[in-house]
């Protein structure tokens, strides 16, 4: 097969077709970034005004059938084809075109030829031939595509036993970063935004929600209608359907969930959401999306939360931890300004969404809960960043804020701590340059106002920053030695500087002191007993356990003392605490605590809690134990997670069930190091040691 031609989207947003040619900005090819979407070759040739989805959900066969209507206007002459992103799992049945007739003449309907071609392992190219006689610049036309979804990466069908209530099936979609091309054909790039509407037909008793600003329901026809009146990129179109009920928690917010967890979700959030929205509006300007609703999804939801406009998706497992729930919801609220309203134009600069949203999240928590709390949470996250940095090495290109994709690289692979925390540190540095955090708040408010509903590149942000603060441009802060903006963006390694977190020392200091006591040889039980961690916050405890994990394996006598001091206490705490304690247990091959590991894996079936423990079990001396627990619980795991765990357990050995069962009775006599890296050389989730 001939190598596919990959166009490049430049910072001036023109597609380069002549190799070696500089872009209109004059900056040269060093500033040009590839776009990993098939539609990149001609999405600039059209203005996508609106699209409509008409869908029928069939739970019995786990398929969505329907059609899509795209309203397009050519902006260039000589356009002969429309290229959209699609996926091998999306079956295209037909493509039609409707062109408005000239004054006094009827509309013209044409059946269009199309072909689906390979593009990457995560998508295909839908090439639609356009009739030159009727497709003219600035003359609107409509394309209708009829399709059926099958088993694509965007659509997650859950059998009843995989839901929280275990009574009715549920389906949800997850489009980030480039998955929605398996939901419907689209320009699957954050550079293209449009409004959309949808009609969804479902069986009786099923409630449908979408990331839309308006909705209606016809009970007689069992049809839901949705409309998103603000332009959004394709990845933010989301749907969930199942046995869902709601409760209002504020004047513009409600919680949706399965009936069995709705009361818990409401009690956890109370009136906090409106308070957080008000704080955010005071900092960054009006919340333009109207509603801010939250739907809690079953443990099979593959990430912690997703900032779908008007309707945040969040995993129900997080309800156990009040502090993590608080941070995750506030982070998704922050995306209402940074990510959803102003969006990164390319996935190679994902930090423009996640780094700015993380900064905004911490401004909100500082205003709502104080600087000490925010500093504690930041220390916890930066610890995780440095942990990942030690594993990857200082020269790993994944640590760049402006990543450069190689052909075929899935943008989802860029979902790492650097886009969040290194991006946050760069934004914090820009704030420090202002000398007054309130001045920077004013800048961010103006930035959102300037670029609202647009997609931007880093140069847009930095040019606006220097234009907003002309004295900084005059003093050449962008070229300050060792802290050059270009080095921040394109340098590998950790952040060039980190914010001052000394305001959190009253909370982080005791954690470090206790860690130091446990690091002494031998630990002094009397001094350790002076620290009552039962009075600590969740973030203090997980910071303490994470730093103990960094020191594992511990001396055996130290591990026994650690268990006697904390095991019973930690067993009664939330899952974020428990998983870290159990990782310590596994990495230290501490067999007396294995029953707690088994109980935890029987109870928790989400990816964020199972994968780290299985990674540790399989990389140490407890793979047989992992296989045993897996066979006991696999029926309650989503098929995608099941495949992940099977690959983890069996890729490096031919261990079969009978062999495994013969080994379960006693632990291996010659232990290997529980900190050995995975056999395949990849970075394990256990090594990163944070929730997604």
UniProtKB/TrEMBL annotation:
Gene Ontology molecular function, alphabetical: metalloaminopeptidase activity; zinc ion binding
SUPFAM superfamilies listed in its UniProt record: ARM repeat, Leukotriene A4 hydrolase N-terminal domain, Metalloproteases ('zincins'), catalytic domain
Record domain Peptidase M1 leukotriene A4 hydrolase/aminopeptidase C-terminal: where: 506-649
Catalytic residues, chain numbering: 332 (proton acceptor), 420 (proton donor)
Biased composition (Pro residues): 668-677
Record's keyword terms, sorted: Aminopeptidase, Hydrolase, Metal-binding, Metalloprotease, Protease, Zinc
Free-text remark on how the cofactor is bound: Binds 1 zinc ion per subunit.
SMART domains: Leuk-A4-hydro_C
Span list, region Disordered: 660-682
Binding site for Zn(2+): 331, 335, 354
InterPro entries: Aminopeptidase_N-like_N, Aminopeptidase_N-like_N_sf, ARM-type_fold, LTA4H_cat, M1_LTA-4_hydro/amino_C_sf, M1_LTA4H, Peptidase_M1, Peptidase_M1_C
Domain of life: Eukaryota
Any single GO BP term: proteolysis
Family assignment from sequence similarity: Belongs to the peptidase M1 family.
Protein name, as recorded: Arginyl aminopeptidase-like 1
């Amino acid at each position: 097969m001939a190598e596919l031609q990959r166009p490049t989207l430049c910072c001036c947003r023109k597609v380069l077709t002549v190799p070696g040619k500089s872009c209109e900005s004059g900056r040269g090819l060093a500033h040009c970034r590839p776009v990993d979407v098939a539609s990149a070759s001609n999405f600039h040739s059209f203005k996508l005004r609106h699209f409509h989805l008409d869908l029928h959900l069939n739970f019995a066969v786990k398929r969505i059938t329907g059609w899509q209507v795209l309203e397009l206007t050519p902006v260039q002459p000589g356009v002969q084809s429309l290229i959209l992103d699609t996926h091998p799992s999306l079956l295209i049945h037909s493509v039609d075109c409707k062109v408005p007739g000239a004054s006094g003449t009827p509309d013209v309907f044409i059946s269009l030829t199309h072909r689906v071609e390979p593009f990457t392992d995560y998508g295909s190219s839908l090439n639609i031939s356009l009739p030159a006689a009727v497709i003219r610049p600035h003359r609107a036309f409509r394309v209708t595509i009829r399709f059926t979804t099958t088993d694509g990466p965007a659509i997650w069908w859950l059998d009843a036993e995989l839901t929280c209530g275990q009574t009715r099936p549920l389906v949800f979609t997850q489009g980030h970063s480039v998955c929605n091309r398996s939901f419907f054909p689209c320009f699957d790039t954050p550079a293209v935004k449009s409004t959309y509407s949808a009609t969804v037909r479902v069986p009786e008793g099923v409630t449908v929600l979408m990331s839309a600003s308006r909705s209606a329901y016809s009970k007689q026809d069992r049809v839901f209608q949705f409309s998103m009146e603000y332009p959004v990129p394709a990845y933010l179109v989301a749907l969930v359907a199942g046995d869902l009920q709601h409760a209002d928690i504020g004047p513009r917010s409600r919680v949706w969930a399965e009936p069995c967890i709705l009361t818990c979700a409401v009690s956890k959030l109370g009136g906090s959401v409106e308070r957080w929205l008000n704080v955010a509006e005071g900092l960054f300007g009006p919340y333009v999306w109207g509603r801010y609703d939250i739907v809690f999804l079953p443990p099979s939801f593959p990430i912690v939360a997703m900032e779908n406009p008007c309707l945040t998706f969040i995993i129900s497992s997080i309800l156990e931890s009040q502090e993590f729930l608080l941070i995750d919801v506030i982070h998704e609220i922050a995306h209402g300004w940074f990510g959803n309203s102003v969006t990164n134009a390319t996935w190679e600069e994902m930090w423009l969404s996640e780094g700015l949203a993380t900064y905004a999240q911490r401004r909100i928590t500082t205003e709502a809960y104080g600087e000490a709390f925010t500093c504690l949470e930041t220390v916890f996250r930066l610890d995780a960043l440095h942990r990942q940095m030690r594993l990857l090495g200082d020269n790993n290109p994944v640590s760049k804020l402006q990543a450069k994709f190689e052909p075929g690289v899935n943008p989802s692979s860029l979902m790492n701590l650097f886009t969040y925390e290194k991006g946050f540190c760069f934004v914090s540095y820009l704030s420090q340059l202002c000398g007054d955090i309130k001045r920077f708040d004013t800048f961010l408010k103006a930035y959102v106002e300037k670029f609202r509903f647009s997609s931007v590149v880093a140069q847009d942000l930095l040019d606006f920053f220097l234009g907003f603060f002309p004295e900084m441009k005059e003093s050449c802060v962008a070229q300050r030695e060792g802290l050059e903006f270009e080095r921040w963006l394109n340098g590998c390694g950790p952040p060039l500087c980190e914010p001052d977190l000394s305001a959190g020392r009253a909370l982080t200091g005791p954690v470090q002191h206790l860690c130091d006591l446990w690091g002494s040889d031998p630990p002094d039980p009397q001094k350790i007993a002076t620290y009552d961690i039962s009075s600590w916050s969740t973030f203090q405890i997980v910071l303490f356990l994470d730093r103990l994990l960094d020191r594992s394996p511990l001396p055996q006598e130290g591990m026994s003392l650690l268990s006697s001091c904390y095991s019973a206490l930690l067993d009664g705490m939330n899952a974020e605490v428990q998983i870290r304690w159990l990782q310590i247990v596994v990495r230290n091959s501490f067999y007396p605590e294995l029953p707690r590991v088994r109980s935890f894996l029987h109870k928790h079936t989400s990816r964020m809690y199972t994968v780290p423990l299985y990674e540790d079990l399989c990389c140490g001396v407890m793979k047989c134990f992992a296989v045993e627990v897996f066979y006991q619980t696999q029926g309650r795991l989503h098929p995608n997670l099941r495949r992940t765990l099977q690959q983890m357990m069996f890729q490096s050995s031919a261990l079969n069930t009978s062999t495994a069962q013969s080994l379960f009775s006693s632990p291996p006599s010659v232990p290997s190091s529980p900190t050995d890296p995975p056999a395949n050389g990849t970075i394990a989730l256990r090594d990163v040691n944070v929730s997604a």
